[in-house]
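User: Can you model how 6-O-phosphono-alpha-D-fructofuranose sits in this protein?
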Amino acid sequence: HAADAQRTDLMTITRFVLNEQSKYSESRGDFTILLSHIVLGCKFVCSAVNKAGLAKLIGLAGETNVQGEEQKKLDVLSNEVFIKALVSSGRTCILVSEEDEEPTYVEPSRRGRYSVVFDPLDGSSNIDCGVSIGTIFGIYQLNDSHEPNLEDVLQPGKNMVAAGYCLYGSSCTLVLSTGTGVNGFTLDPSLGEFILTHPDLKIPKKGKIYSVNEGNAKNWDGPTAKYVEKCKFPTDGSSPKSLRYVGSMVADVHRTLLYGGIFLYPGDKKSPNGKLRVLYEVFPMAFLIEEAGGQAFTGKIRALDLVPKKIHERSPIFLGSYDDVEEIKALYAAAENGG
Ligand code: P6P
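Assistant: Here's the modeled complex, given as structure tokens:
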């Protein structure tokens, strides 16, 4: 009867989070309400992404975002859906989106205690060729009801109360942590519900995969170049690592979380801070990887200790299996000490 029990005992993401939050006596269900609106946004984007090719949603919207990249209609749509869903939850006060140059300050009558930083459709340059893309989000909580200001979101990632991503790939998978481990939920389209499919995810301590854009090798600094060289030509008699690089952060990080290994987006001579954004790419992924037992490093410090100065600032990032990140930390430390 175990199989029957499982089939009828559907652990949806809402039920899972309610169970988790009910452990905190002061919880009034606000976080659960906020999360249900994020989930609504993910369901909408999942549906739109799956129909994009048919609904001719692809193609340029003509506008450009803060990155100067041309926005695709799906970007614009996804951003609007998430902003509206988050405001209508009545639980947010500041929203920072990769698509908007300025933060959105929620008007007082609809304000709540949470700030959400998010990339509504990361990897969007891959939309037209059908490669997996995703939504990434991080959540900060204001600890009192002061007038929200930029300082409330220029916080180190370790102050986040939750983080997650939704991968729009062969299936639609939402991976979430509220600070007590990592859990994965897969959308069952027939129910329109995210069902718990990956309970208590832990990243392998060491992996056999490295994930980096080798096309930037010419500009890498010493420690990154040395590390990648060791992946390809190990000196300890071990086999070379495999290279897997999708070029869509959510896809590359999801594979790293499940299979182990290391994902690198280093800084280089051309872009000393790399390409990935601190608030809504580096922090949420670092939060999840650490909660799953891995590490996330900027080349100088623990990624979650970084204190951002601007909402769209970038940072180099090396994240993944504990032992693999430890190796590149040692190379940066040696370079620091003139090694
Ligand atoms: P590159 C996608 O545009 C993105 O922001 C991330 O999703 C991805 O990890 C990275 O850029 C890929 O960048 O320079 O390797 O194409």
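A couple of observations from the model: DSSP finds eight helices and 15 strands in the chain. The pocket of 6-O-phosphono-alpha-D-fructofuranose is lined by residues 122-123, 125, 213, 247-249, 252, 275 (CB under 6 Å).
User: Helpful, thanks.
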